[in-house]
Amino acid sequence: MNILFAASELTPYAKTGGLGDVLAGLPAALRARGHGVAVALPLYRRLRASLKELQRTPLTLSVELGRRSLSARVWQGVSREGVTVFAIERDEFFDRENLYGVNGEDYFDNAPRFIFYCHAVMELAGMLNPRPEVLHVNDWQAALIPLLVKEARLPFKTVLTIHNLAYQGVFPAAEFALTGLAGFYFKPHALEYYGRMNLLKGGILFADAVTTVSPGYAREILTEQYGCGVNGALKQSVLTGILNGIDTDLWNPATDPWLVANYDARRVTAGKRKNKEALLREFGLAEGPLLGLISRLTEQKGIELILAALPELLSRGVGLVALGSGDAQYEEALRKLAKQYPRQVAARIGFDEQLAHRIEAGADIFLMPSRFEPCGLNQFYSMRYGTVPVVRKVGGLGDSVEHGRTGFTFSGHNPESFLEATVSALELFGDRKRWKEMQMAGMRQDFSWERRVPEYERVYKTLK
Ligand code: ADP
Ligand code: GLC
């Protein structure tokens, strides 16, 4: 099958979270199974600077964006995993430092930027040889494509994957004109959402199939509580939950070039000790059980539970290494704690891929008390690195961490429940034999994308 992926992120060139990791891993795994696969992205500044074998193709697209006729040149390169990447050049929109905005503020022109991108991908798909049979679009940035395809009666099947329902691409009604669609589509049966335009909703209603990134989240988002206002639309779609995989080469403690010592399941205790010592030294922390956190610092991630429970945990002699960026209040709170407890808390505010690997290897316990979590990837990385995850039993976290066997889970969204689960983990940490059993149980699991590919193939096969 020939599949063209459309998404706004690709690790390591353009990443704000797990979306980029999925776009690096899933297309590569499909390609390894013999499918024809390519990914289409905006040509961001960083992509231009770092994508392998990047060169201009003879293809030029012409896109109607509202009243403007815009052209876009197409570049082609190869991802780190060897997948063909098409990059759509339009510097006024994409030659920027960041993907979506600066300092937590969205760029003012995200509607034209990504509506333009959707039109361009659709044009591109029609020019490719061989022609893609499936356009696999991801999240709101690419979600207009299924409707554009239907409206133009193009011979593509479309799949929408929702990585996070909390981001829907909702814009003022005035931006609807940019889609070039007839007013008929600015109605509740299509893009209209309480008087505004909702791009993700369009994808949900017009894609031939909708998937999301775990079975648990697929069930949750049909409910009022987790449905973010579009559970009704989702009920009209054909929705499948498929758990994410991970790149098991990139996240492999036996070969990870960023660790001070490599290790596998047989040498986990000694290997992790060396990595932990290096991490403690790097941040000037005292010896003791070490908690790790790597996260976008947003409401989704349950950071407030960690902040509330931390004083009690610190009084038990544990340490915390936190890496993340996002909402100013969480950044500030973590910075403050690090100042207050310099020997127990380290906070690195920012984005640092290499440090993320060192934390996974050096921490004993990894914290993910998310309020909601479509899938989550760090719990997989943690288990693979022998770092026991403490997670809230929600979405993909509930599907991937088994309480008492591969990690600890809790249900209530309150500091007490989180504290209880973390204290259970700390108690087990004191029992070397049982701790090692838990580490091994996590390390022996297969989280590879290869395992997930048949589930996506099944979805592609159902498209009529
Ligand atoms: P989400 O996509 O909701 O942010 P995931 O757990 O699916 O959550 O994926 C997050 C990805 O982003 C992981 O690869 C994680 O290591 C990475 N990540 C998040 N914040 C940072 C950061 N500050 N520095 C480095 N990597 C980060
Ligand atoms: C989103 C979700 C996260 C998921 C990732 C990749 O950012 O928040 O849970 O793992 O997408 O699918």
What would your notes on this structure say?
The protein has 464 residues and is an alpha/beta fold. It folds into two domains: 2-245 and 450-461, Rossmann fold; 265-446, 3-Layer(aba) Sandwich (Rossmann fold). It has 18 helices and 20 strands. It has helices at residues 18-32, 45-50, 91-94, 110-127, 139-142, 145-151, 199-206, 215-220, 231-235, 268-283, 303-315, 328-340, 353-362, 378-384, 395-400, 415-429, 432-443, 453-462, and strands at 2-6, 36-42, 52-65, 68-78, 84-89, 101-102, 105-106, 134-138, 157-162, 170-171, 192-193, 196-198, 209-212, 239-241, 290-297, 319-326, 345-349, 365-368, 388-392, 408-410. The strands form four sheets. A nine-stranded mixed beta sheet has the order 3-4-5-2-1-8-9-13-14, with helices on both faces. A six-stranded parallel beta sheet has the order 17-16-15-18-19-20, sandwiched between helices. Helix 6 packs across helix 7 (199-206) and helix 11 (303-315) packs across helix 16. The chain is globular, with a radius of gyration of 22 Å. The two termini are 14 Å apart. The mean pLDDT is 97. The structure holds adenosine-5'-diphosphate and alpha-D-glucopyranose.
